[in-house]
Amino acid sequence: MILLNSAQANKLDALGETFDHLDGEQLMQNAARSLYEAVMRDVDRKKKIAIFCGRGKNGGDGFLLAANLMAEEYRVQVVVCFSEEDNINPLTMKAITFARHKQVSMIALEEFKGADVCIDALLGTGVKGELSGIYLKAVEVMNEGYVLSVDVPSGLNCDNGKPCGTCVRASKTYTLAAHKVGLWIYPGKEFAGEVELLSIGLSDGVYAGVDTRMQLIDSELFHNLIPKRPPNSHKGTFGRVAVFGGSKGMAGSVVMASTAALHAGAGYSYAVVPDEILSLCEQKLTEVIVKSDKDYKKMYELADVLVVGPGYLSNSGISHIMKLAQQGSKPVVCDAEGLNYISRGQRVCPMIITPHPGEFAKMIGLSTEEVNRNRIYLSGKYAKENNVIVVLKGAATVVASPTGDIRINTTGNSGMATAGSGDVLSGIIGGILAMGASPFDSAVAGVYLHGLAGDLAAKETSEYSLTATKISEYIGKAFLYEQL
Fold it and tell me: Residues with Cβ < 8 Å from 87, sequence gap 6 or more?
């Protein structure tokens, strides 16, 4: 599913008028109808509903929604959050007139005495600066109760997910026509609550006219990316992953990564480790083939895909392995200690890096807080400047390509913030790469599969008790869940 910023959302409306011959009034009526059907489904008829309306098109949607609910004998009133002297959008003025004709109850904010459900139709997508005056007061009043937001929670910057000072904290957001970027990245995701996409009647051709490089990673996209497995095949068909990693006290990382590569579909997986943990890894691993990293050149030649870094600490051999890997043409997934050896000069190999925010902050010379405030921009910038695919881990993992494409993940939970989870992700991406997917597709499909496995595992163990090993064990169930 595509993700739009505020400018692109406005362009979408304009294209609807040009190509679908739907004028602004018809689009507003379509939006109100979809909102009405959603509210009818989600809100009991006995509940008292207050719709907080501003003077823009978001407010117009609210006035028409109120009229539709009145026709179904809902207990609804509009809280008018502007004065007649304000510059009211002409379409909203028509909606006000229609609502008055339908005898919708309208009150001023100071007259509001409470409701079971507050519907936020105050501001919409265009908000940039901090709220003040009646808008600030209205948001504060709504946040005292249960809130459903129209399109975007009022006070949320839909381009970057940052609250403009005070912001509506919705239980659910009905977003119109297309998903907005700020609803799916933190902290915006917390303010949006559950997000449901509602149609306003636009054709596929209209969406094709909006130049957006951002998409949500959802089930449909995952199905389009994951390689199909031909029935007439053998283990060599699905490639060889060599995981270079591990050190004394950190054998678990390479064990988890190499095992996850098999669970994700690779035909062969090798754990290429220092001699000091060779025997231990042989005891722990059954299906994975264990080799000494003294033979790193031989293993490089044997492998189709390299995963470098899980569990490495101060192993001097990593510099030689990374140098060889970056001078070759085989795809490399680089994680953990491997991130410290990325070449700043000429690099031939396709590379996927999988830093968590702290590692990424160190790589670019910023604080972790700055990284988390600008996840999309910074990951995209680094990907372009360094010709790598960036998987910036964390809640709503971001995948950025050197060509400017951005994907934001929709799976995963707080239980996955646990030791070894990133090692499992590296192995998953390596396994999908080995099956023949492109590096970018492997990264995108990998983060979705990883998150889905974590979601399914958490249903058994709870988010509190989720472990990386359990995530890996549930990769197969995630494939089954997606009917693959």
Answer: 55
Rounded Cα–Cα distance for residues 234 and 361 (Å): 42
The CATH number for 342's domain is 3.40.1190.20
Query: How far apart are the two ends of the chain, measured CA to CA in Å?
Result: 20
In a shared domain, residues 177 and 245: no
Q: What is the DSSP letter of 131?
A: P
Listed residue (182, 177, 181, 175) closest to 206, CA to CA: 177
How far, in Å, CA of 448 to CA of 462, rounded?
19
Distance CA 155, CA 139 (A): 8
Rg (CA), the chain: 26
Structure token digits, residue 83: 């004065």
Range of the domain at 257: 222-481
CA dihedral for 342, 344, 346, 349, sign (positive or negative) = positive
Contact by Cβ (8 Å): 89, 57: yes
Query: Do both 198 and 297 map to the same domain?
Result: no
Mark out the alpha helices in 143-233 (DSSP H runs).
Answer: 188-192, 204-208, 219-225
Q: What is the CATH number of the domain that holds 173?
A: 3.40.50.10260
Give the domain-ending residue among 157, 177, 211: 211
- How far, in Å, CA of 141 to CA of 450, rounded? 40
Q: Is 79 helix (H, G, I), strand (E, B) or coil?
A: strand
Q: Could you tell me which residues are beta bridge partners of residue 179?
A: 3
Per-residue pLDDT of the chain (484 residues; tens, 9 = 90+): 899 999 999 899 889 988 889 999 999 999 999 999 999 999 999 999 999 999 999 999 999 999 999 999 999 999 999 987 788 999 999 999 999 999 999 999 999 999 999 999 999 897 878 999 999 999 999 999 999 999 999 999 999 999 988 999 999 999 999 999 999 999 999 999 999 999 999 999 899 899 899 999 999 999 999 999 989 898 889 999 999 999 999 999 999 999 999 999 999 999 999 999 999 999 999 999 999 999 999 999 999 999 999 998 766 678 899 999 999 999 999 999 999 999 877 789 999 999 999 999 999 999 999 999 999 999 999 999 999 999 999 999 999 999 999 999 999 999 999 999 999 999 999 999 999 999 999 999 999 999 999 999 999 999 999 999 999 999 999 999 999 8
Nearest to 195 by CA among 223, 210, 175: 175
Verify that 267 and 152 share a domain, yes or no. no
Q: How far apart are CA 413 and CA 396, in angstroms?
A: 9
H or E stretch at 251: helix 251-263
User: CA 253, CA 255: separation in Å to the nearest integer?
Assistant: 5
Task: Collect all residues with Cβ–Cβ distance below 8 Å to 37 and sequence separation of at least 6.
Answer: none
In a domain, 216, yes or no: no
H or E, element range at 407? strand 406-409
Name the one residue in this structure whose structure tokens are 């790469």.
Answer: 433
Token pair for residue 258? 């190499």
